[in-house]
Design goal:
Blueprint lengths: L2 H5 L3 E9 L6 H10 L4 E4 L7 E4 L11 H6 L2 H17 L11 E7 L4 H12 L12 H5 L3 H10 L5 E5 L4 H14 L5 E8 L5 H9 L25 E2 L1 E9 H6 L6 E10 L9 H15 L8 E3 L6 H15 L6 E3 L2 H4 L6 H9 L2 H4 L1 E2 L23 E2 L5 E8 L3 E8 L4
Parallel strand pairs: 3-7, 4-5, 4-6, 10-11, 10-14
Antiparallel strand pairs: 1-8, 1-9, 2-3, 6-8, 9-15, 12-13, 14-15
Helix pairs in contact: 4-7, 8-14, 11-12
Amino acid sequence: MTNAEMYNSRIVITGVGLTSPIGDSLPDLRANLLAGKSGVTEFETRYMPPVLAGVCNFDALRHQKRKEVRRGTRAGSIAVYCANEAVNDAGFDWENVAKDRVGVYLGITEHGNVETENEIYEISQFGHDTSVWSHHHNPRTVANNPAGEVTLSLGVTGPHLTVGAACAAGNAGFIQGLQMLRLGEVDMAIAGGVSESIHTFGIFASFKSQNALASHDAPAKACRPFDTDRTGIVVAEGGAICTLERLPDALARGAKIYGEIVGHAMNSDATDFVLPNRNRQAQCIDLALKRAGMTPQDIDIVSSHATATEQGDIEESSALAKIFKDHPNVAINNTKSFIGHAMGAAGAIELLGNIPAFDDGIAHATINLDQLDPNVPLTQIVANEPRQLDSVDCILNNSFGMLGINSVLIVKKYQD
């Protein structure tokens, strides 16, 4: 394959591994999305009354020994679980894969807060005697930890990176993997996003101080994107990782193909630390469409980022209205309404939850949308009940984050 052919390679998804508050496999996640099942529950954290969160219940010992779990991190365990599941799902003859030609690229929102908070709490019980401080702290808190733990688990000797991209990170992990494949740096990419966010009390305290932390007497109704009665963000943990390959390589080994990544874009608002910018978001969506050689009318499902904060919902919906105003048949949905905001894993989980629509033709709903905010200028939101579409050939996935980082990924149903 020439450099030009490599650069223009078609990149496909061939394996999927995930954990989420409503399922630890793609079939389980999809079934619960279509059934309208919420994964939000009460959760204990330090220094605060019980909060609402999306909590995962995967079996960490499925791919790790107890010693490895103790030595590593929650984000690392999530990453190891999802990566192993993806590799197994892809059907590789793993013993004979050239591990130096495999790369690991995982998006994260933040990393190390959980471990540092735990150590500070621990030494506070011993008069702040630092001799109690764990010697595992440094390898636990380096930013590349989750991806590095995957390389240790799978014996990968190619490059590994975590991509710090706030809540745009899930898409960013996929984009990094795609780019490295096209550069010829690797022949297979293990890519996606992970988050251990619920295990740091600081994230709850910070959102609470911003009046942006969701509350509700019924946890399942707490996350309410686009709804007038939204109260804020439900924090969640989770992970979603895929194996990505160049199409000729996937075809040569007879791989199942979940979809083809045909468009992507990232840009920056450059306007505020926290508040989003509808114009930059619209530009990011438009750039992804142009790179895919598509128009808005080519998109069947838009997976929205909406976090159930008032300004965030309004800015994104305004961006979507600008792009899709002449496309009344597009189905716009939201996965956070089921599981909360899985931060660095959000975009990846949300994309994968929609990918089965290529086969069943169904756009899952946005639950808890009882009264649409009049400032949300969208008529295409799938509210409360799934929508059967004539066909689903293309999905656009929005994922935006603090400091004004935006990412968009477009995945198409594979066709020869």
